[in-house]
Amino acid sequence: MAFSFFFRDIFILERLADIISEKAKELKVIKIWDAGCALGQEPYSFAILLAEKVGYFTFKKVVIYATDVDETGEFGKTITNGIYPFQDISRIPIEIRDKFFRQISEDRFQIIDEIRSRVKFQRHDLLSLLPVDTGFIAVICKNVLLHFSQSDRVKVLEMFYDALKIGGFLTVEQTQKIPDELVNKFIQIFSDVSIYQKV
Ligand SMILES: C[S@@+](CC[C@H](N)C(=O)[O-])C[C@H]1O[C@@H](n2cnc3c(N)ncnc32)[C@H](O)[C@@H]1O
């Protein structure tokens, strides 16, 4: 199910954005993979958090690969256009809303181009076990793995390992634990937040 909302699990995304912004200067391209991105609420939230933390020129280095199996075939259009009804953005703090969304009709709001241009949607099935690319500084995969069997979860996490740069970061939902088989591949870097680093 493609349930999501803007700034879901903000404490995790905020911490990841802090880490990436600290490393941003040394990276040529800031490549992030949001796997299981639903209708784009998560990759756009993360892009906004990053834009708030890094400067204008550094933000231009950001590329977020937003992927989902998208059984409806509709996600690409929503994410590419970045248009959402008021109900979807009503809980976003007003100062963020005013800064990053523009009203295009009575009930519809569009993410500003500066943010929209950094997020690229691609249909992708994680269970294909083929990464969309490699060299990512971060993979965000929240509220997706819980739908998979334990053995598929291990295989998908191994794929993320291969897709990440050495020292890159993996983010899952708080209730997700890295399986024992992979403890040599990922280390948890905070005791209170589910962010792991590729060994
Ligand atoms: C509950 S939503 C989570 C959305 C977002 N990551 C969040 O945390 O709010 C789960 C998403 O995973 C996607 N998904 C499920 N199975 C998938 C698969 N095999 N490959 C890619 N995406 C998948 C669903 O289509 C859905 O959009």
Number of helices: 8
User: Strand fraction band?
Assistant: 15-25%
CATH architecture: 3-Layer(aba) Sandwich
Largest sheet data = 7 strands, mixed
Cα(first) to Cα(last) distance is 32 Å
Radius of gyration: 16 Å
Spell out which ligands are present.
Answer: S-adenosylmethionine
- The percent range for helix content is 25-40%
Labels describing this entry:
single chain, 10 strands, 8 helices, alpha/beta, Rossmann fold, binds S-adenosylmethionine, 7-stranded mixed sheet, 199 residues, 3-stranded antiparallel sheet
Task: Give me the secondary-structure topology.
Layout lengths: L9 H14 L6 E6 L5 H13 L2 H4 L2 E7 L6 H7 L1 E3 H4 L4 H7 E3 L4 E4 L1 H4 L2 E5 L12 E5 L9 H14 E8 L14 E3 L6 E4 L1
Parallel strand pairs: 1-2, 1-7, 2-6, 7-8
Antiparallel strand pairs: 3-5, 4-5, 8-10, 9-10
Helix pairs in contact: 1-2
Short description:
34% of the residues lie in helices and 24% in strands.
Walk me through this protein's architecture.
This protein has 199 residues and is an alpha/beta fold. Helix content is 34%, strand content 24%. The strands form two sheets. The chain has a seven-stranded mixed sheet with strand order 6-2-1-7-8-10-9. The model has no long low-confidence stretch (mean pLDDT 97). The site of S-adenosylmethionine has 18 residues, from loops.
